[in-house]
Design a protein that fits this description.
Strand 2 and strand 3 form a beta hairpin. By secondary structure, the protein is of the alpha+beta class. The strands form nine sheets. Strands 12, 15, 16, 17, 21, 23 and 24 form a seven-stranded antiparallel β-sheet that branches.
């Protein structure tokens, strides 16, 4: 096992319970580091963090209709050193630790994340068969090359991509010029296994910054369920029968959707790397104007583009509406109508640590936890763990205080007390490299438990366009620099 990267990724499972052990990494310069590997149990471990669930378990008494769970667990490496060999943990006895595969998770070189969306659940779609999906996404950073990331997260079956293209949007489903064909390991399409992802080959295609793209892919077989990002706040398009990925014309695109299925990222060549925004519905842009790209991450991206004091990072929006720090809304397996995602703790590796060229993470979560009864101590422990795990992987970690929400039905006096306790912890700053006081930005000075009326979308929980712009404008861009 050799290579350079920021982490080792193990495919593991425990039997007889969660299993742990300590192993050693030897580097080419002769130095060593130790790591602790913990594998959840293959039958009782959390579904929310599994890599894949196998459909049944074989026993001496016969086959059981029970899912076997395999997990991808990552541990950090010493930055800048080349791995020469990895010694696995010794057999701990019962419970048993099983390692099925191991790889070095390489740091992304030569790419900047320009757009992203987090898989928030696994829901019924379409149904689609021999249809082309044309998704509208908005770039942050631009560059001379492009690749797209598709993910079959949470799925129980593979999905086939027949062909895929990228184009600059002219208007609606109309492309500005003939869409350019993407390839996957030299082929026009690919099959994405359950729980896996696919990254297209690099394509020489100049991606403008701060621009809408059309990412189109043909689904030749039946697709009745898919991982989705539910709150796209953007109209996208689905065609009638046939492969219309390369069509510049909108004529074949006869219906619209307001989710982003399967597509999780657009990367551009070069650039300084990315800032990842881990959040809930406020980061997701709920209550902002649809089709207008007025989410606070979009406004922040524009600010970065229009200055020269700090690097012009890509901005990756990993907000999920209804998401929480310490509790799963979506259980992590099966078809569900709930698209609140697994917890920030359970999605941290996928949605932050594995994002393209991530340099800094901004954590803006917790209001849903306190509204639904989580204690301040639980939320603080979760935020502290996010900071520790992110820093261990070399990221700068910035936290934002929880915004006020009095007047919304679940924002009771008790919830506000919990919110204020979390904010007091955050303002202490000890676990974070910087703190953004979004509470101070949004609150009504005359009534600090409420949003300023001019920033309130009307539901007393979500800022409208003006409030979201105020959040982005309040960020000292120097605080984003590692």
């Amino acid at each position: 096992m050799r290579g350079r990267g920021d982490a080792l990724a193990f495919l593991v499972a425990g039997t007889g319970g969660a299993a742990s052990g300590t192993g050693t990494v030897r580097y080419r310069d002769g130095s060593l580091s130790r790591y602790r590997l913990t594998a959840p149990d293959w039958r009782s471990g959390p579904l929310a963090t599994k890599a894949v669930a196998l459909p049944h378990i074989n026993t001496p008494g016969g086959q059981l209709a029970e899912k076997a769970r395999l997990y991808v667990v990552t541990v950090p490496l010493v930055r800048g050193r080349e791995v020469a060999s990895v010694t696995l943990p010794p057999d701990p006895g019962a419970p048993d630790l099983h390692v099925f595969a191991l790889s070095v998770r390489a740091r992304t070189q030569g790419w900047t994340g320009s757009w992203s969306a987090a898989s928030a659940g696994y829901t019924a779609v379409g149904p689609w068969s021999d249809r082309t999906v044309r998704l509208v996404v908005h770039t942050s950073a631009g560059g001379p090359r492009v690749r797209v990331r598709l993910a079959n997260t949470f799925a129980a079956a593979p999905v086939r991509i027949g062909a895929a293209t990228v184009a600059v949007q002219r208007a609606g489903a109309t492309a500005a010029g003939v869409p350019r064909r993407l390839s996957f390991r030299g082929r026009a399409g690919t099959e994405i296994p359950a729980g896996a992802r696919a990254v297209s080959d690099p394509l020489d295609f100049r991606v403008p910054a701060d621009t809408n793209l059309l990412v189109s892919f043909h689904l030749p077989g039946p697709v009745v369920t898919a991982p989705v990002h539910s709150q796209a706040l953007q109209r996208s398009y689905v065609s009638g029968p046939g492969d219309h990925a390369a069509d510049a014309s909108p004529a074949a695109y006869t219906s619209t959707i307001t989710t982003w299925p399967l597509l999780t990222g657009v990367d551009v060549g070069g650039g300084p790397g990315s800032v990842v925004l881990l959040g809930d519905s406020i980061t997701d842009g709920v209550k902002s104007t649809p089709d207008a790209n007025r989410r606070w991450p979009d406004v922040l991206a524009t600010r970065l583009l229009n200055q020269s004091r700090v690097p012009r990072y890509g901005v990756l929006n990993q907000g999920i509406s209804a998401n929480r720090v310490v509790a799963d809304r979506y259980p992590g397996d099966g078809v569900s109508t709930d698209t609140g995602g697994v917890s920030a703790l359970h999605r941290l590796d996928r949605d932050v640590l594995a994002q393209t060229s991530a340099r800094t993470v901004v954590v803006f979560e917790g209001v849903n936890d306190v509204r639904w009864g989580a204690s301040a101590r639980e939320v603080i422990a979760g935020l502290r763990e996010i900071a520790e795990r992110s820093r261990a992987r070399g990221l700068r970690v910035v936290a934002a205080t929880i915004a006020p929400c009095e007047g919304e039905s679940l924002c009771t006096a008790a919830a506000n007390t919990r919110r204020e306790a979390v904010n007091a912890y955050l303002r202490g700053g000890g676990d974070f490299d910087a703190v953004l006081d979004f509470d101070e930005v949004l609150r009504d000075p005359a009534h600090p438990a409420r949003l300023l009326p001019s920033y309130d979308s009307g539901d007393h929980l979500h800022p409208g366009d003006a409030g979201l712009a105020a959040l982005a404008d309040s960020v000292d861009l120097r605080q984003l620099v590692p």
